[in-house]
Design a protein that fits this description.
This protein has ten helices and 15 strands. The protein is an alpha/beta fold and 334 residues long. The protein has two domains: 169 residues, Quinone Oxidoreductase, Chain A, domain 1 (Alpha-Beta Complex); 137 residues, Rossmann fold (3-Layer(aba) Sandwich), CATH 3.40.50. The strands form three sheets. Strands 3, 4, 5, 6, 7, 14 and 15 form a seven-stranded mixed β-sheet that branches. It has a six-stranded parallel β-sheet with strand order 10-9-8-11-12-13, with helices on both faces. The mean pLDDT is 95.
Length: 334
Amino acid sequence: MKAMILDAPGGLDRLRMVERPDPGAPGPGMIRVRLHATSLNYHDYGVVAGKMPTEDGRIPMADGAGVVEAVGEGVTDFAAGDAVVSCFFPDWQEGPPRVGDFSRVPGDGIDGYACELVVAPATAFTRAPRGYDHAEAATITTAGLTAWRSLVVDGGLKAGDTVLVLGTGGVSIWALQIARMMGARVVVTSSSDKKLARARELGAAHVINYRTHEDWGQRVHDWAGEGVDHVIEVGGPATLTQSIDAVRIGGHIGLIGVLTGIAGDVPTATLMRKQARLQGLIVGSRRMQLEFVRALDDAALRPVVDRRFDLADLSEAFRLLERGGHFGKIAATW
């Protein structure tokens, strides 16, 4: 089978296509999946660019979507022909978080899904949302589930809530769409007026260009009246202070990303005064993904896939991610 591997971490030019042995028939509790798509995340970029350690020859990519070709003995959740999508934490089935590293995350600690075929435990996959193509389905594994967990599982999002979404990348646009699906009002920040216009088309009630308005946190607070109920915080240290300014007393901030760095000052007095809940999170469990898929089955919602690349052009796809030239998700298909 064809597989994209990372010769050695440390650069996009170290990705290359190779032939790997066919994984064979699935054993008990396993499924054989013919993969057709993956989607790009900053975590994948970190691995490929050498910012996160991994082994030479690793098959990258945490997201994988395809079709079940065969099932092993004892598998009852799937049958041949089912469209499926992978789980970010294949060993975290349900319950509270019990994992804090990436040692068993596909594309990082173990081989990922930038390949034609995989044999894996059936519990490492869920059914894909009904009606989604493979590229669309691949977007739920990391970005979609992260937004779902932050807003719905951890945040208890309900109709009429207000949500601040930072930026227009994969997690942020998924958060905008989920919030609108749930009946919430959303404000989106970006440095691009063109991207803000697209966010409006997706249902954002208010948009702010953070370069034009450096006090965007206070402006968001004022727009919401007493501050927003939820913040999707993907920036990290350079944006957290203003996210705390934006949130209401007793509100919820989901700390999802570190795009501006991995450490920084926290305005503790302001956070205390706001009595806000600042919660870090990494994607979610298989149970959360099953619930997310059920919600999507009943919703008129399709993810935003900005660009689709051939798997052979994965390096080019990562360069688009690197320069922030996308709106929503980037996918690779084959």
